[in-house]
Amino acid sequence: MRIDKFLKISRLVKRRTVAKEMAEQGRIKVNDRVVKSSYDVKLGDIIEVGYGTRQVKAKVLDIRETTKKAEASELYELVD
């Protein structure tokens, strides 16, 4: 699954277009490498998303095509 779609489905970013723009600006890293929006997410990847002043680091636990809002947080685990 593409990183922009994963960020939307996991609700780490509200819209896929926003996730795509963030990737183009170099604000999304996977395993300490800046990635494009077409990057293919794998289980165990560590995703870093930069929202202006704060950074969110999350480990991918599951990949699903769709998810309910209540289950979205099961797709990842926040890492320090």
TrEMBL record:
Q: Which InterPro entries match?
A: RqcP, S4_RNA-bd, S4_RNA-bd_sf
Asked if the record carries the keyword Chaperone, the reply is no
Q: Name one Pfam family in it.
A: S4
Q: Which residues form the RNA-binding S4 domain?
A: 1-64
| SMART domains in UniProt | S4
Q: Which GO terms describe its molecular function?
A: ribosomal large subunit binding; rRNA binding; tRNA binding
Keywords linked to the UniProt accession: Protein biosynthesis, RNA-binding, rRNA-binding, tRNA-binding
Keyword Cytoplasm among record annotations: no
**GO biological process entries:** rescue of stalled ribosome
Can you tell which superkingdom this protein's organism belongs to? Bacteria
Q: What does this protein do?
A: Key component of the ribosome quality control system (RQC), a ribosome-associated complex that mediates the extraction of incompletely synthesized nascent chains from stalled ribosomes and their subsequent degradation. RqcH recruits Ala-charged tRNA, and with RqcP directs the elongation of stalled nascent chains on 50S ribosomal subunits, leading to non-templated C-terminal alanine extensions (Ala tail). The Ala tail promotes nascent chain degradation. RqcP is associated with the translocation-like movement of the peptidyl-tRNA from the A-site into the P-site.
Summary of subunit composition and partner proteins: Associates with stalled 50S ribosomal subunits. Binds to RqcH, 23S rRNA and the P-site tRNA. Does not require RqcH for association with 50S subunits.
Q: Identify its protein family.
A: Belongs to the RqcP family.
The protein depicted here goes by the name: RQC P-site tRNA stabilizing factor
Give the organism, scientific name.
Lactobacillus xujianguonis
